[in-house]
Every structure is written in C-alpha cells, then in structure tokens.
Amino acid sequence: MSGVVVHRPGAPALVGRTGELHTLLDAVNHPPAVVLVEGEAGIGKTRLVQEALAHPSVAHRTVLAGTCHPIREPFPYGPMLEVLRQLEQYSIPTNLNPVCGVLRPYLPELSEHLPPAPEVRLDHRTERHQLFRAVRELLSAAGPTVLVIEDLHWADDGSRDLIRFLIDDPPAELALVMTYRREELPATDLPLGRAYRHTPGTTSVLIPLFPLDVSAVRSMTATILGRTDVSSELADELRTRTAGIPFVLEEVLRALPGTSTRGATGARLQATVSRDALDRIEVPVLLREMMADQMAALTAEATQAVRAAAVLRLPSGETQIADVAAVQEDAIGPSIREALAAGALHEIEEGRYGFRHSLAQQAVYDSIPGPDRRELHRRAGQALDTARPRPLVQLAYHARRAEQIDKWVEHGEAAADSATELGDIASAVEILEGMLADSAIPRADESRLAINLSRVAVVGLAHHRAVRILRRVLRDNHLPEPVRGEIRMNLGLLLVNQGGEFQQGRVDIEIAIEELRDQPALAARGMAALAMPSWPGISASVNQEWIDRALRALDGDSAPAQRMAVRGNQVALAMNMGDPDAWRQAEELLDRDHPSTELLQVARTYGNLADAAAWLGRYEASQRFRADANRFAADGGAPYFKTITDGTGLRLDWHAGTWQGLADRAREVLLTVHGVGGTAADAHLVLALLAVAVGEADDAVDHLASAGTSTPDEAPVTVAAVASATLIRILLSRGDVTEACAEAERALTRIREKGIWVWASDLVPRAVSAMVRDGRIEQAETLLTEFADGIAGRDAPRARAAQHGCIGIVAQARNRSIEAAEAFTRAQDGYVALPEPYLALRAAESAARCRMSAGDADAARELTGTAEGFAELGATKDAARCRRVLREAGIAIPSARGRRGYGDQLSPREREVVRLVANGHTNRQIAEVLFLSPRTVEQHVSKAMRKLGVSSRAEVASISLTD
C-alpha cells in the first residue's frame, strides 16, 4: 500500500537530480534503510522525496510522511506520532505485540486496532523504553514501509532519541528517509544529535543536494515557461540571481509577467525574461518572511551590518561594511559572525560577505526605511570613492540613490565612456539607457547623453529600449537641429540594421540627412546607409544615387571612419550587384593597415562583403571576408558587426552541406542576437531549408514567415527571395499550383523593383517550375530570358548554375528529355564547382530522371547514387523521393539487409521514422514524408519501439538518438 503524493499545481518536472533520485530509490527499495537528505532551504529536498514516493517501484509500500515544526515548546515525539496516526488509512494487523498498547494514549485514532494499555504504572525511563519498542513493533507490523521525516533540524530531543532507537535496530522492511538543513542544526551540528553509526545489514546513505548548475537552470526554466528556446545567457543570469536554488528559481519565473501563458512567441519570451523584467520582480512573500525571521533574531549591530551589505549589493569586506554601517571596526567582526550564524549573510569568497542570492539582498534592502537607505548609500559612495580603480558604476548607483544628482551624472557618464573604451558596448548602452530613462536626469545633460547613447547603441545588439528612449528625446522641441539630426540618423540606423524596420528607419535617415545639411560628412553616413541594397522599397539605381551623393558629400575634413563607412558601402553595393570590378575595389580599399579609428567600419565592410559574396555563390571568398570581419569586430568591440557574419555563417554551412548540428546553431543564434533583423531572418531561413529537406513542411512554413514571407516589406530582399522560393516548392509539393504561381509573381515583382537578378538564383527555378506546372511554358521561357539578361556580364556563378537548371525544366516540359538531362548536368557541374552539394544532388536527380524517361539503362544507377548522397547529407525527404521513383519504375533498391544486420540497433530507416514520431507526426504523415505506405510505417514504428524498449509514442519523444 502507498500514500498519496500531492504535487504543487504546476510544479515542474524534477530537474538536475537524476543521480540523487536513483540513489534514494535504490536505498528505499533495499530495506532496512536509513537515508539522510541534506540541503539548504528551497534546494529541493521535499521535491526529491516526493518524486521518489511517486515512483512505481514504491507503489507497494506504505508511505508515512511527517514534518518537524519550529515551535517554541515542542510536544515530545510530536512528528513521529503525527506520522503514525496516518496508519489509520491502512490495514493494521490484529496480532500486534502487546507492547503496542502503550501507544493508546498517544494515538487515540488507532485505539481500536491497538492491544490494551498496560495497567501497571511504570517509571518514566521504563515507560519511555516501552514507547520506543511499541513504535518499532508497530512499524514492523506495517510491513514494507517508507517513513519520511522532513526538517529534522527542528525535531525535539524526544523525537531524535526515538529515531536513533529505530535506526540502531530498524524493522526489516522499513526505509527511514529524513531531510534537514545543516545550517539550522542545533549546536552539535549533527542531524541526529550524535554521530550515526551504520548498522550491519542496513542500507545507509547521505544525499547532499547542491544548487543547480546553469544547464539544469536552463532545463527547469524551459519546463516552467513551457518553452524549449531558453538561451544559455538567460540561464546564466537566472543562475546568478537565484544561486541555482530551485524554489527561488521557480518563484522568480512564476512572478514574471506573461510566463503563465504557454506557447508565447520566442520574441515574447525574450521580452518577458529580460533583465529589466527580472529587476522589477518583487520578492516573493515566502522569501521575504524567511529573511524577516532571520533578521528578527539579530542584535542592532548585526542588523546594521546586514543592511549595509544589502546596500553595497556586491560581496564586501569587513572594513567596507563597517564604514557603511557606521559600526566600530572592532565590533564588526562579532556582528558579521552573528549574521553568518543566522544565515542572513554568507561568506561569498574569502573575507567578503554578501547574500545567498539577489532576492535575499532585495528583501533586506526593501525593509530599510527610506531616510536610512539614503544615508547608507551616501556612506557607501564615500567608502568606495577611495578605491582604485574607482568603481564608477557602483559610485553612480549609490549617488543616484543618495539623491546626489550631479555626482550620479558625472559617475554614470564616466562609466559609460570607460565601458566604450574597453569595448564593452552592452554595458555602455545599459548605463546610458538607465540614466536617460530616469526622470531625474537634468535637461541640460539629456541631449549630450542621448547623442552618446545613439552612437554606442548603433554598434551594439540590444536596441528595443534605446529606440524608445531616443524617440522620446527627439520629441523635445528644444534640441538644436544638428543634435537632433545626429540622434535621428543613429536611430534610423538602429531601426534598419538591428531592428529590421527598414521603412521607418529609412524615413528617419532621410529626415536626418536634411537636418545635417551643415554637417555633410555626417550626413554622408546616412546616405551610404540608404545605398545598401538588401532592403526593399528602393531600386538598385536609387541605391547607386545615394552612394554617389555620399561620395560627393565627403570632403578633406572627413574623418577616416566616415570615409571607410562610405567607401565600404560603395564596394558592398557593387559586389551585391555582381559587378566584376568589385573584387579589385575591395582589395584596394581593405588590403592595407587601418588606424584604430577605422576598425569598426572595416569590420562592418568585411561583414557586408561576406554576405554579398555568399549570395553570388563565392563561398570561399565569403568565408575569408567573414573571418576578417570577426577579427576586426573583436578588436573594435562591436557586437552588432559580429552578428552580421553569424547569419552569413549559417547560410554558408547550409550551402556547404555542413548540416550536422546546423539547426542547433541556428536556434542558438536566434537566442543571442536579440531580434537583430537580418541575422534573425538568416537563421529562420536556414531552419526552414533544413525542415524542408527532412519533410517538416509545417515547421518550414512557420520559419519562412519569420524569415520574410509574412512581412516582405521589412525583410531583406535576398532572404525574402529564397524564402518565397522555398514556399513555392512546398506549395507545389502539396499540389497548390495556383498559390505557388501567385507567390512567384509577388516575389518576382520585388526582384524586378530592386533590379538585382543575381539574387534570384533560388527564386527563378522555382517560379519556372510553378509556371510549367500551371501550363504556362511560354511565360516560363520569357522569365528565363529575363533572368539571363539580368545576370549577363555579372559575376554570379550560382545564378548561372540556376540558369542551366531552368533550361532543363523548360526542356523537360517540352518533352525534350535528353536536352533537359544535359542542361541539368550542366547545372550540376556548376553547383559542384561552388561547391553546393545539395543543389548539385537536386540537379543530378533531375538529370537521372530525364534519362530514365528516355530509356537510359544507366540512369537508375545514377539515381540510386543520388539517393544515397541525399541520405548522407541528411536530406531524408529527397532520398525517399528518389527511392520512390526507383520503386515505381520497378527497379530493385539495394537493401542494407544484405550488407549488415542491425540486431537491436535502429536501422537508418527506423531512425528516420523515430525522428518523425518524436516530432509528433502520425503514421500517415510519416508515410507522406518518406513516400511509404502507412502499413510499412506502422511496421517500422513497431520495430523501433521494441528496440528502444518503450511502449508509447510519447516515450519515443524523450529519447535522444546519437550516432
């Protein structure tokens, strides 16, 4: 028999305690057993025990659970007697040892099941001994039993004596599990009051529970939020704030706005679990009460020391705490020792004291009256001002809270400048954002700080808050026009580059150019930004006009960085358009030493060239440019310029067929770029392409929407073109030719408006396919001619390979199979030369199928090899399609069965099936993806589940397949 374990509503799955759970279960299932579970408050002792009690292996045992309480006058044996009363729920044997009768006065609920009480009055010692014997006999009669005593540190002496009596000679089928906090044990520092001596034949284990590491914090956060996309950065921040204590972590996450709603978008998750959101969390009531209890027991001097530590925030030494607390230095030692003993303070590192986690610090800080807080902050500023180097961020913090506004502005601005010089752009942005968001900032300082914020934010990543603040500052009609112009231009750049809001950003930049008419070199930077061709709404000819204006605006007084920004965009524009001379221009501009003031613009230029070269199909050059961009970005401390190459790197891996782990890399990029538009679009695009290759069409459509198909006016034209091409492919596979043609027309309109056909190397082949499927062969031929004219004379090897593929599609539609096969083979050769293995295999498949239809006997062998190539690459959908064609042609497919037996291991096909089952696909959906019959899929699923040792499809989802 077993008790009922009631979980807290919404309690997360047990995380990070697998080893401890196995140890506990092993002990409980090998009685007699004594288990001590040690850990601080909130560490998960109760949760671990509950998980063990709910395990099927414990189902046949009687479960008795009780808790010790911190009451001033504990009732002797109270916790043990409360536990024994629970036997009323169970079937108690009738042939109990007569000694059990002594329990009648203590357990009236069980009196009808207990023998008569002894009539002879015994002395206290004898009665106590009989009571202990009676408890042991009753537990022995209960059969297989798990006895749980929680919070042993609060047990009365009588209960401790009774427990020691039990474990010295435990009932044969009893497992005794006790939890305790070492920091709250009585003076002996021993949970049982004396050292426990292991009894022969008894299973004895001590299970210490430690804080969760970052990985476990990430898993628990994902469980509570109902998400999988929790970044390592967020997990690390939560680990720092909660010290990895599960209870504190759970309370923090449940206090966040919006986290009760599962299935929020990734953007919503990042917005909800931001640092600002974490800073705004109020201390949960239980934590606040716990800290209040600890503080209530302290002397006045110790209380003041703890308050000083709360104001200082960071772990501090005795001298600093004494200065802030205004406690004599010879008295600070005893005060800190008292606070340590009470658990109010902890020695974080040798000689430096602080709090277990930030919420404990916040609870104490919030309890300090306002006037006292301000005085403590004033003293903290004085104490820290003598440190070298001066802790500027801390000085600014204390000055603001001491209401010393002039000092706050002075220290804060100096801290931002220092962070910028050190390349810590994120910190500089955070400091300036915090100051400008504060209503106490003097108007005389606001415009200067806003210019500084706009300058550093434009090379950082986080942008949402900066955009709001800069927009608010621009509403001030008292700003001088040149100041307004610079702030507005940087705001526009922030919207265009980081925010992916090109239309609004373009408007801001155009207005700023007019406001900066008396500063032509600065205005040229905005003109050069409008010359970048990736964004929609401006034709390539207009992009060229903007770069020409920017070059004319430069003069002899222009700074080197301004010149590099304009010239770099000039070369990037030329390369994006496939101008063969762009390579010479790039070498002339970049192949030299660069002054430190140019480094950030050099990094940006290399990043833009890497992106442009990748779209052309110049992958080796793109990799070189990307490496240089990362090197210069690291030297210059510009995280945004690094992200430019992150998206390019994902695409290069896709093109190169480096797909192993690519989806994980793309998801990690999404979690780290803070919504940076172009890079996020690249990541979504790659995830969509991977999903199509394995038959995950629905997932692909979702990612394509994020990449640009849902908002093409705010997506890079390059990415939107590939996204549309991929969507057309999906629509055609579903037989929706009409919508495929409509999507093709919309996408082609954007390319025509832009006028850069070298970017259409994915789109045109898919558009031609849609037109041919719709019976519009002549229109497809017209498009092919337009494409050929658009790439004529351009450096565009990828587009040229695509051109051959289009010729093959049209020839195939005209039933000219040999001509089509030859064109597809030329396309294959072009893709191999890039190299781009996936598209080379696609072209090879088309060529082989054309040859098969023409009766070529060798074509089947070629298609078989192509299927194997797809499988090796990871394109399981394509491999399955090739095999289906071979089966339908009556051609035997070589079976792995003849080469090797897989025994208890999964075959490649079974692995494909398991992956799809784990992703929630039904057998019919799997059959569609792999071009198999539902019956065949059913057989594969059955065999795979048997080999994996699982009995349900849900269990399959929890299994990680490795090579």
TrEMBL record:
Q: Which residues form the HTH luxR-type domain?
A: 899-963
Could you tell me the superkingdom of the organism this chain comes from? Bacteria
Record InterPro entries: AAA_16, P-loop_NTPase, Sig_transdc_resp-reg_C-effctor, TPR-like_helical_dom_sf, Tscrpt_reg_LuxR_C, WH-like_DNA-bd_sf
User: Keywords for this entry?
Assistant: ATP-binding, Nucleotide-binding
Q: Which GO terms describe its molecular function?
A: adenylate cyclase activity; ATP binding; DNA binding
Q: Name one Pfam family in it.
A: AAA_16
Gene3D superfamilies per UniProt: P-loop containing nucleotide triphosphate hydrolases, Tetratricopeptide repeat domain, Winged helix-like DNA-binding domain superfamily/Winged helix DNA-binding domain
What GO terms fall under cellular component here? cytoplasm
Q: Which GO terms describe its biological process?
A: regulation of DNA-templated transcription
Q: Per its record, how is this protein called by name?
A: Regulatory LuxR family protein
According to its UniProt entry, this protein's organism is Herbihabitans rhizosphaerae
Q: Kindly list the organism's lineage.
A: Bacteria, Bacillati, Actinomycetota, Actinomycetes, Pseudonocardiales
